[in-house]
Structures are given as structure tokens and as C-alpha cells.
Design a protein that fits this description.
Length: 620
């Protein structure tokens, strides 16, 4: 019996991809056997229908995902460009493989071979076949004289139609032609500056059940992190714009520079179907901040007019009442109405771009004290709820002054029974250092992993690391309570040793309390939090002019650093009339020690929970 079953579409290209994954798995894990199950999707059943007519989203993946959820297969292999950006509950992208050539390819018919070497050389009125509204819109903009024909079918079918004279040229993905051995048919690999590729083009996405630890472990080695960083940023653009296969939009990212310091360059565009208007932009930033860069670029495109082009792509409804917005469309509409944030480090204001109904936090001003590099999600959630955000970072996240202690802990992981992560920062710096030392994720398999809070657990899950324990709060009592609930009183903590990679400023709230249980906790500096270089005068001016309704503190350091920057022992006088929200009890205690009354404290210590609490409080 096979030990792992791959689900795949039945086209020659899909089977090539599935068989390549099969061969790689059997090479990496010689003891396993892999089988392939062919699943026919809606897109396959309607092979000649227009993608616009069948809506595009999920038409090549839905049935395969159903088989995955039903445990009929263990992993789904997709062309990443066909996979919707929002996956069904319980599924995730376990791995993204190294990208093949992401560019689109021009293939000309026999009568043009040798005479035409590029799109620019195609004769006026040439008939060009494509199934992609993205390609069609860009081609109409680039060469309005061309005749564009709808062309569906697999790669071989399209090449056959070309050779039979149904059109003069066709546009396909270079990756598919290369994988199937048709590389010699390519006339031109089109520069992305002329024809920007689809998000995820050229990469394979491996989708699995989140709870399937065994399969996730087997697939981990197939992750190619430069490709993953770039394509996840591309998919974040799509999520921010609410688009799919039936929308003329494109996104393409690549890493500039070597190693960990390489920068992600992310480009995207939105067009109208006729190709008359194109909104295009790009951003550059750290490759590990792909989601944030993608969301940023989506907002820049919306601010530049993309929302008007996207509105034209919504299909007309047959009934008097319009269809309800999808979550992605709703978020897009909210983003359009919000204040835009155009750079990762600096804030610029823009007027609202629509007359949408008032959002729950419209008219509210909120000070966010979180570090600039960590505040993206919180700011996004506040902005799409209508709030005006005043960025006032009182903390910066940096590398530790020395990696020596963390390097020693990583080199001697065998000392430990547990690794405890208290924040996403701890995860990011710990794994980054493992990568820099050439250590693989598989080395963490023998150890129990504890993640404090849902967001930390989700961050580890995205890295393919199984989490054994998820206490809601960063306290010894919460950890012990979660341990007993998960493993029972029979599983003793006494005699175990825990590694806690954390900030240099992490309060020692766990070690003393766990000592009485016979647990040794080694708190090792993985990163440091420092006070930004901001003058007291600048900060006083910012806070006094803001006249904010709320201020959000996300760690004890954000509170104490604010007091230090303001050179005061009590923050109360500076924040009179401003309601104080703290993300957790330790932060709330720090706020009280600085003379503040804490008005809002969510039960769950996440950005989503604190924004929901602000919305509820604002409505009172």
C-alpha cells in the first residue's frame, strides 16, 4: 500500500508536476512509496468554456481540495497560479517549490517562424490566442492592433490549434512549455516589464491538511524559501485586491541580492479588460515581510485608481439585489475608504477614495506604539475598520548584540526537552539564525514545541513546525495549566529543560515560577528591543496634536519606553482623555505602574481581538 497519495489533475502538465513531486519525495525519503490519484476538476470538465464565464476562482482546485479534506489523498499538487489565495479551513500551503521561469512565452505559427522573434515584430492584425484576461488586457494595451482570440485547452491542444492555423501566435507560460519539453517552440520569453506574469506563475504549491504532521514533515524539504517569500507576497497582493483568474491583474516578485539580506522587489498591476487603462506600481523591502509588502502594494494600487478598474470586472446580476461581497471584496472596499499608508516606515495621508457607509471606527484616532516592522497587521485591521492611525513606535526590534548564546543553544539542542516561543519575533529570529548556521527545520522534530498565543502558533505552522502546546498567556500558571490539560497530571514536568528564545528585555515571569516544579528554563537572547531615536519634544508634540481616542500598547516595553522618551514617571497627564488598550495582562500591569488606567484588555492577546474590542467600545 502507498504511504502517501498525491492528488492531481489529469492533464499531461499536471501529471508531470505530480510525478516530479513523487520522484523528489522518493529521493528524499527512500522508505516511502508514493501513488498518484487523478481527480477531474470543474475547469477540466468545462475545457472549452471561458474562464470569465465559469468565474475562474477555484475551478482547477475545488474537487482536489475536497478529496484532501475527505482523507482520500494526502497532498494536492497545484500550479500555484491556479490556487485561490484563501484556502478551505483545515488546509494550508505546506510547501512551495523552486520556481521555473516565471515569464510568459510567445509561440508563433509555422508561417511566422524565422520572421518574427518578438511581440513587437508580430504583423498588424495578427491573431493571438490566449485564455488569460490578464495577458489579453496587457496585450491590448501594448499592441491594440492585434486580434485576440479566446483559446482554451491544455498545452498540447493549444499548440496543435496554432499549427493548424487557428491563430498566428499564442501566449503561454514558459514554465509549462519547459516542463513538457516544448522549450524549442518558444519564440520569445517575454520581459515582465512588457507582460507581467500571474501571481505564483512557475511555482508549484503543495497543499495539505494542517493536522497531518507526518505529511507536512515529509514535504518540508521541498520548500524553496526565496520562491516562497516572493510568491506569498504576490498572493498577498491578490488578497488585498480581491482578484482571481477572471480579473486583469498581475503580480510578480523576485529577490535582489544574496542570502538573508536579499531584498524582495514586488511589482503588480491592475487593468481594465479593454487594456485602455493600467495602474502599475512596485515596492521593495525585506524578503521576510512578503505579506506586509503585498498588502502595502495592494493599497497603493487602490489609491492610484485600481478600485475603479476592479469594480468594472464584477459580473452583472440578473436580480434586482446585488450578490453579497466576498470577504476579500469587502476588505478591498473597506481599504478603499480608509486612510492609505504608502511606505513601510513612514505614513502619508490620502483622502478617502469612496463614499462607502461609515466604518465602525470612522472618525476615531488611534495611537499605535508597536515597532514599525511589527505593526503592519494591527495598522491594517484598524485602517480597514475606518480608524485614523497615528504611528508612534516606542520600540525597535533588532538583532542581539551577540549571537553567541543563541548559537550555543542551537548547537546543543539535545540538552532540551521543550522549545518555548513567546512571540512571532522569537520564532523569526530563532529560525533565521538556524538558516544562517545551515541547520534544517527537521532538527526540531524530536523536541516538544510550546507557542504562547495563537499568532505565534500560526507562525510556526507556516514554517511546517508542529506545535504541541499553546497556552493563551505568557505566565507560568498558564503554561502549567495548559500542560496538564494537554498531557494530564501523570506527565510530570519535573526534570525537564526548556529553551526560551526571546527578547533581551523579556521579563523573567516563567523561570522562577517553574523552578518549584523542577523545570529548568534557559532564557536565551534571540533579539533585542531598543528605544527609537526620537526626542522628547517631538513625541510630546505628536501626542498632544493627535488628540487620540485610543492608544494601544502591545508589550511592557512599549509602555516603559514611552515613559522614558517623555522623561516622566507618570503617563497619565500626557494621555488625558485617551482610552488605554493593552494586548495582555503583563502589558496592562506595566501601564498601571506608569499611572495609567487600563480601559480595554482583550481575553485573546492578538491584534484581531484588540481591534474588535475597540470597535465594541467605540459603539457605546
Amino acid at each position: 500500500m502507498p504511504t502517501l497519495i498525491i492528488g492531481s489533475r489529469g492533464s499531461r502538465l499536471a501529471l508531470w508536476q505530480a510525478n516530479w513531486i513523487k520522484a523528489e519525495l522518493e529521493r528524499l525519503h527512500p522508505a516511502i512509496t508514493v501513488a498518484i490519484e487523478i481527480i477531474k476538476t470543474t475547469g477540466d470538465k468545462l475545457a472549452e468554456a471561458s474562464l470569465v464565464q465559469i468565474s475562474g476562482k477555484g475551478v482547477f482546485t475545488k474537487e482536489i481540495e475536497e478529496a484532501l479534506l475527505d482523507h482520500r489523498i494526502d497532498v494536492a499538487v497545484h500550479s500555484l497560479k491556479d490556487l485561490p489565495t484563501t484556502l478551505p479551513e483545515g488546509l494550508h500551503l505546506c510547501a512551495i517549490t523552486e520556481r521555473e521561469d516565471a515569464r510568459d512565452a510567445l509561440v508563433v505559427g509555422p508561417h511566422l517562424q524565422g520572421r518574427v522573434n518578438s511581440i513587437g515584430q508580430l504583423p498588424a492584425g495578427a491573431r493571438v490566442g490566449t485564455s488569460s484576461v490578464r495577458r489579453a488586457a496587457q496585450l491590448r494595451h501594448l499592441r491594440p492592433d492585434l486580434q485576440l482570440l479566446e483559446l482554451r485547452g491544455n498545452v498540447e491542444t493549444r499548440l496543435r490549434k496554432l499549427d493548424q492555423g487557428a491563430c498566428d501566435a499564442i501566449i503561454l507560460a514558459s514554465a509549462g512549455l519547459l516542463r513538457l519539453g516544448f522549450g524549442e517552440r518558444i519564440t520569445e520569453r517575454i520581459d515582465p516589464e512588457l507582460l507581467l506574469p500571474a501571481a505564483g506563475q512557475g511555482a508549484l504549491g503543495l497543499e495539505t491538511r494542517i493536522e497531518d504532521e507526518r505529511t507536512n514533515f515529509l514535504l518540508e524539504a521541498l520548500n524553496h524559501w526565496p520562491t516562497r517569500n516572493a510568491t506569498e507576497a504576490e498572493r498577498a497582493v491578490l488578497r488585498g485586491l480581491g482578484g482571481g483568474c477572471a480579473v486583469p491583474l498581475a503580480a510578480y516578485g523576485y529577490i535582489e541580492g544574496e542570502g538573508q539580506n536579499g531584498q524582495l522587489v514586488l511589482k503588480a498591476l491592475v487593468a481594465d479588460a479593454a487594456g485602455n487603462q493600467i495602474v502599475r506600481d512596485q515596492v521593495t523591502g525585506p524578503q521576510y515581510r512578503g505579506d506586509e509588502l503585498g498588502w502595502l502594494l495592494a493599497r497603493r494600487l487602490l489609491a492610484a485608481g485600481a478600485h475603479q478598474l476592479l469594480a468594472k470586472t464584477r459580473a452583472p446580476q440578473s436580480s434586482a439585489s446585488p450578490a453579497p461581497l466576498t470577504p476579500a471584496e469587502l476588505e478591498r472596499e473597506r481599504a478603499v475608504a480608509s486612510v492609505q499608508k504608502f511606505t513601510l516606515e513612514e505614513e502619508e495621508n490620502a483622502a478617502p477614495l469612496s463614499t462607502a457607509p461609515p466604518l465602525p471606527l470612522s472618525g476615531r484616532r488611534v495611537i499605535v506604539t508597536r515597532a514599525s516592522k511589527q505593526a503592519g497587521e494591527l495598522i491594517r485591521l484598524l485602517e480597514i475598520s475606518g480608524a485614523e492611525v497615528i504611528a508612534c513606535p516606542t520600540i525597535e526590534i533588532r538583532e542581539p548584540e551577540s549571537w553567541a548564546a543563541l548559537d550555543d543553544a542551537i548547537a546543543n539542542l539535545k540538552r532540551y526537552d521543550w522549545i518555548v516561543f513567546t512571540s512571532s519575533n522569537g520564532v523569526d529570529f530563532f529560525l533565521r539564525r538556524m538558516d544562517e548556521l545551515g541547520r534544517g527545520r527537521a532538527e526540531l522534530i524530536p523536541y516538544r514545541v510550546c507557542a504562547v498565543g495563537r499568532k505565534t502558533a500560526e507562525r510556526l505552522s507556516r514554517e511546517g513546525i508542529h506545535v504541541d502546546l499553546t497556552p493563551a498567556r505568557f505566565t507560568a500558571e498558564s503554561l502549567v495549566e495548559a500542560f496538564i490539560k494537554r498531557y494530564g497530571v501523570g506527565q510530570r514536568l519535573r526534570g525537564t529543560r526548556m529553551l526560551l528564545p526571546a527578547s533581551s528585555m523579556t521579563r523573567n515571569v516563567i523561570r522562577p515560577a517553574l523552578d518549584k516544579f523542577g523545570v529548568q528554563v534557559d532564557v536565551v537572547t534571540a533579539y533585542q528591543t531598543v528605544i527609537p531615536a526620537t526626542s522628547s519634544e517631538e513625541l510630546i508634540k505628536l501626542i498632544s496634536q493627535a488628540r487620540a481616542d485610543y492608544i494601544i500598547f502591545t508589550s511592557p516595553s512599549t509602555v516603559t519606553n514611552l515613559a522614558t522618551l517623555l522623561e516622566t514617571d507618570s503617563l497619565e497627564s500626557y494621555l488625558a482623555g485617551t482610552r488605554v488598550a493593552c494586548i495582555g495582562p503583563v502589558t496592562a500591569e506595566a501601564a498601571r505602574l506608569q499611572g495609567l488606567k487600563v480601559h480595554l484588555l482583550p481575553e485573546e492577546h492578538t491584534a484581531q481581538a484588540i481591534v474588535k474590542l475597540l470597535i465594541k467600545d467605540s459603539a457605546l
